[in-house]
Specification:
368 residues; mainly alpha; two-stranded antiparallel ribbon
């Protein structure tokens, strides 16, 4: 497990990764604001919403793993282009979150209105015609797509040598494909899957790997490494470190989605229960409950008429099942596997190993 010393380090503050990524995003958004303002005077609300969404909060985990993947492969700390390339991953993440919030019917993100709710409110306050919910949803689809386009633009124009960008582009593209199909499988499971059958755990693990584990840690590390010119040995080592760590990260997120404090998560209490997410935590809970309680959890999880008063009862079912303890144990196993791989990884000289150790802790030691 991470050492106590790593817990006192903010790995994204080391070498000012967060500040450099934020500066790259702000510079990029300045250019896009000028572009959009030249198209129509009606577009400033779009750039304002996206600027705030990008720059008001966010852990910057994916850019951090990309940056330290670069440094571990011998990339220069002082090269400003890596911050722009890494910031492209935050545009991808923002695109996914805008669409996620719409699909999950989430009212907030980081304690602020989600994008579709923000534009519903704009429609209402402006006294416009038509259905405000449809307007908010349509706008969120379009802005999420716009962010997806922009992530490609920023990555390709990062300023790194063209041959390095082209070498990393297949991993960048694969990451985007994986997260989209993982998202689809996540949408599919609540409507087509049977949470009580033998295949439920395996299907849930597949979603976890492609929607989160690879996307959050393994692929960003590999993209950074390829931008620095890394060979197959380091790419394999990053997979062996990143995939179990990514799974542990998502399992921690699943616990937070059921038991998390809204003041910490920025989301309503028990949000995953309201949204009906069929996580590994829920799959384990189904197996730890009596048949009657499992049916109750299965039927009320994500039900359209689920009330706020029912959330504590559903949370109690999950707690009583023993699933949380199973998931905590699995997180510990995955962390040991990941950190063993990091110990053996052929990293270049420099602070990359200690920064990746601290990032591992930051990704998985979040509290309820």
């Amino acid at each position: 497990m991470p050492s106590s010393s790593s817990q006192s380090v903010d790995p994204i503050a080391v070498e000012a990764v967060r500040e450099r990524v934020n500066a790259a995003l702000a510079e990029f958004m300045d250019g896009q604001a000028t572009l959009l303002a030249g198209i129509s005077p009606q577009l400033p609300p779009v750039t304002e919403a996206l600027r705030e969404f990008l720059l008001d909060g966010g852990k910057r985990l994916r850019p951090a793993f990309c940056y330290w993947g670069w440094r571990g492969a011998g990339g220069a700390a002082e090269d400003p282009s890596i911050a722009r390339a890494a910031a492209a991953l935050e545009l991808l993440q923002a695109s996914a979150l805008v669409h996620d919030d719409l699909m999950d019917r989430s009212d907030t993100r980081r304690g602020l209105p989600s994008v579709h709710r923000r534009f519903e409110a704009l429609h209402r306050s402006s006294g416009w015609r038509g259905n405000r919910e449809q307007y908010g949803a349509s706008t969120a689809v379009l802005l999420g797509d716009l962010l997806l386009i922009w992530c490609d633009e920023l990555f390709l124009r990062s300023g790194l040598p063209a041959e390095r960008v082209l070498a990393a582009k297949p991993a960048f593209d694969l990451m985007r494909t994986e997260v989209m199909v993982g998202q689809y499988l996540d949408v599919l499971e609540p409507v087509a899957g049977d949470s009580t059958d033998e295949g439920a755990l395996e299907r849930t693990r597949t979603v976890l790997h492609y929607k989160s584990a690879k996307y959050t840690i393994e692929r960003p590390l590999q993209v950074g490494a390829l931008l620095a010119g890394a060979g197959p040995e380091l790419l394999t080592a990053y997979s062996e470190f990143g995939l179990p760590l990514g799974e542990a990260f998502q399992l921690r997120d699943d616990l937070l989605g059921v038991f998390g404090d809204p003041a910490v998560t920025g989301k309503p209490a028990g949000d995953d229960l309201r949204e009906g997410k069929r996580t590994l935590l829920i799959a384990h809970a189904m197996r730890g409950l009596s048949p009657a309680d499992a049916r109750r959890l299965d039927q009320r999880l994500g039900a359209p008429d689920l009330t706020a008063e029912e959330i504590p009862a559903l949370r109690g079912l999950v707690e009583r099942s023993g699933a949380a303890e199973l998931v905590e144990h699995r997180i510990g196993e995955l962390m040991r596997q990941s950190l063993d791989a990091l110990d053996a990884a052929p990293l270049a000289d420099g602070p990359a190993r200690s920064a990746l150790l601290a990032l591992a802790d930051a990704a998985t030691a979040r509290k309820y």
